[in-house]
Write a structure and sequence with these properties.
Strand content of chain A: under 5%
Membrane topology (chain B): Peripheral membrane protein
Number of helices of chain A: 16
Helix content of chain A: over 70%
CATH topology of chain A: ABC transporter involved in vitamin B12 uptake, BtuC
Structural class of chain B: alpha/beta
Largest interface: A-B, 25 and 34 residues
Number of domains of chain A: 1
Number of strands of chain A: 0
Shape of chain B: globular
Radius of gyration of chain A: 20 Å
Structural class of chain A: mainly alpha
Order of helices and strands of chain A: HHHHHHHHHHHHHHHH
Protein name (chain B): ABC transporter ATP-binding protein
Oligomer: heterodimer
Distance between the termini of chain B: 37 Å
Strand content of chain B: 25-35%
CATH class of chain A: Mainly Alpha
Helix content of chain B: 25-40%
Number of strands of chain B: 12
GO biological process, one term (chain B): iron ion transport
Pfam families (chain B): ABC_tran
CATH superfamily of chain A: ABC transporter involved in vitamin B12 uptake, BtuC
GO molecular function, one term (chain B): ATP hydrolysis activity
Shape of chain A: globular
Order of helices and strands of chain B: EEEHEEHEHHHEHEHEEHHEE
Distance between the termini of chain A: 38 Å
Chain lengths: 334, 262
């Protein structure tokens, strides 16, 4: 019996290791995609030892989007795990729940109205995200939350918000690149300024989310059982939701609406490392970073010299996956 | 534990706020003797489950109060309450996989603060709870893979890990075959005799109530019909009043047996 437990831990360490190596490989690939090519050694020397023109160019042009892809991927995936735990519904993610749509909408308006206050952008996005979340939550509530109703309401609210975003983008003029990149969900034009925001907010929120691992595990039990062991269920649901919405909103304010990432990653993670959030939550972050960086890099390569945005890649690859999940799950299939 | 003039009605959800359906419980008063096994019996819909929910803070009474050590349970916060009273509900479900040991260890939750907990003591108590309920052999197994009887024992172990003086069980024998029913009730009896845990449970089988409890509380249409030692208060007449059916009582080794057929 003890051995089985050790096997599990061993397997998890192995999965973590493989995914980390994969992330590193994709990272090097992403660095080397485009007109300038660099070897790992060259990169290392150029970054830490001596000035190298090519490395400097890559550093300015490619690094921001790579770092943002990694952080945004992690944030959206962890947000997905948290939301699925809170709603006890494996078919939700920040996109389906309208959080990304609401956050993106407010963020787009904010960049048009206050183009200089970029550092407060995530806060503004959070306001939109939380508003959308509570809107969906209360509209879907009818003596309890039916998983199907929450998806339908979420998709509707989300569509309305993305439509509104388009309206504001068109009204604000096409040259509002900040707003446009949020609406279109592209991270191609990101600079170190954007990285500063992401690197300030996302790691902090990820660490905070790890504080709620125990609560996430408890939510697998019936509500009355959780209450019986002295936990205020409503309170922990609210707290975890707010953290999830914050993560998703920050991600959306930087990278726009990205569908399906927060849905797919937790599912694959559960298959690979099990349902214990102690492992699931950090692993989803790692896998989310890997997959989103992969999507972004594929988008740069697949139609070279044109670029397809990571959100489009996610939408195209994620849609079929979502349908597959719907068909496979006994609960919602009928 | 003392229940004083307790009344409860569910909200009428179809009408506007403040309107209530008919009373489910009507001015019920009784007290639970410490260190005994008390069984609540009565027909379906007589208010047993509602009473249990009220006594475990899952519902708030409209009138009257429930006292625990002289203190109204509404004034006791959830966490503190969970260190005094444990509950095993019916039809416990788990989403996702969870090992037996993991589930039992969640019973220690009321003793955790946000930052730390006495890890060694917690482990020790989890071990004890698993030993008492005899589930150590499958500690690393997923709870969903267990049989009904094993599952029920696991949830009781989780409640035991809370180390409370009072344990509530809502129809613990439902869905179990006769052997597992009796094994479970004997285990509950051991918990009471050996560790002095006050047991309050809802049972459907009158013979089980007769054999395994020190006190019986009988409810009929939201009113308290009887309370006392099972041998004294369970008679052919009271059964007829409680369940609207006439059943014969015979004796075996000078103990009452209710004939469960007409």
């Amino acid at each position: 019996m003890e051995r089985r437990k050790q096997n599990r831990t061993g397997k998890n360490i192995f999965v973590f290791l493989i995914t980390s190596i994969l992330l590193l490989i994709i990272f090097l690939w992403a660095v080397n995609t485009g007109s300038i090519k660099l070897t790992a050694l060259q990169l290392y020397r150029g970054l830490f030892i001596e000035f190298d023109e090519n490395v400097a160019a890559v550093y300015d042009l490619r690094f921001p989007r790579i770092i943002i892809a990694i952080l945004v991927g992690a944030a959206l995936s962890v947000s997905g795990v948290l939301l699925q735990a809170v709603l006890k519904n494996p078919l939700t993610d920040p996109g389906i729940l309208g959080i990304s749509g609401g956050a993106g909408f407010v963020a787009a308006i904010f960049t048009i109205v206050f183009p200089a206050s970029i550092y407060f952008l995530p806060m503004a996005a959070f306001v939109g995200g939380i508003a959308a979340f509570f809107l969906v939550y209360s509209l879907a509530w009818k003596q309890g939350l039916s998983p199907l109703r929450i998806i339908l309401v979420g998709v509707s609210v989300s569509t309305v918000f993305s439509g509104l975003s388009e309206v504001f983008q068109t009204m604000g003029g096409q040259n509002q690149t900040g707003a446009a990149s949020i609406v279109n969900g592209t991270i191609a034009m990101k600079t170190w300024e954007d990285v500063k925001i992401a690197i300030f907010y996302i790691p902090i929120m990820l660490l905070i989310s790890f504080l709620f691992i125990r609560w996430c595990n408890l939510l697998a039990l019936d509500e009355q059982t959780v209450r019986a062991i002295g936990i205020n269920v409503t309170y922990i649901r609210m707290t975890i939701s707010i953290v999830a919405v914050l993560l998703a909103s920050i991600a959306s304010s930087i990278a726009g609406t990205i569908s399906f990432l927060g849905l797919i990653v937790p599912h694959i993670s559960r298959i690979l490392v099990g349902t214990n959030h102690r492992v699931l939550l950090p692993y989803s972050g790692l896998l989310g970073a890997t997959i989103f960086l992969f999507a972004d890099t594929v988008g740069r390569v697949i139609a070279f010299p044109y670029e397809i945005s990571a959100s489009v890649i996610m939408a195209v690859a994620g849609g079929p996956f979502f349908i597959l999940l719907l068909r496979r799950s006994e609960q919602y299939g009928s | 534990m003392e229940v004083k003039q307790l009344s409860f009605a569910y909200r009428n959800k179809r009408k506007r706020k403040g309107s209530y359906l008919e009373n489910v419980l009507n001015e019920i008063s009784f007290s639970i003797t410490e260190g005994k096994i008390t069984t609540i019996i009565g027909a379906n819909g007589c208010g047993k489950s509602t009473l249990l929910k009220l006594m475990t803070k899952n519902l708030i009474p409209n009138h009257g109060k429930i006292l625990l050590n002289g203190k109204n349970i509404r004034r006791i916060n959830q966490k503190e309450f969970a260190r005094m009273v444990a509950v095993v509900h019916q039809n416990n479900k788990i989403s996702g996989e969870m090992t037996v040991e993991q589930l039992v260890s969640y019973g220690r939750t009321p003793y955790y603060s946000f930052w730390n907990g006495d890890k060694e003591k917690n482990l020790e108590i989890v071990e004890w709870a698993m030993a008492v309920t005899n589930i150590k052999d499958y500690r690393n197994q997923a709870v969903e893979t267990l049989s009904g009887g094993q599952r029920q024992r696991v949830f009781i172990a989780m409640a035991l890990a809370q180390k409370t003086k009072i344990l509530f069980l809502d129809e613990p024998t439902t869905y179990l075959d006769i052997r597992h029913q009796i094994e479970l009730l004997e285990m509950i009896q051991t918990l009471n005799k050996q560790y002095g845990i006050t047991i309050i449970m809802v049972l459907h089988d009158i013979n089980h109530a007769l054999y395994y409890s020190d006190e019986v509380i009988g409810l009929k249409e939201g009113k308290l019909l009887l309370q006392g030692k099972p041998d004294e208060v369970i008679t052919e007449e009271t059964i007829e009043k409680l369940y609207d059916i006439h059943l014969k009582i015979s004796y075996h080794n000078q103990r009452k047996i209710v004939q469960m057929v007409r």
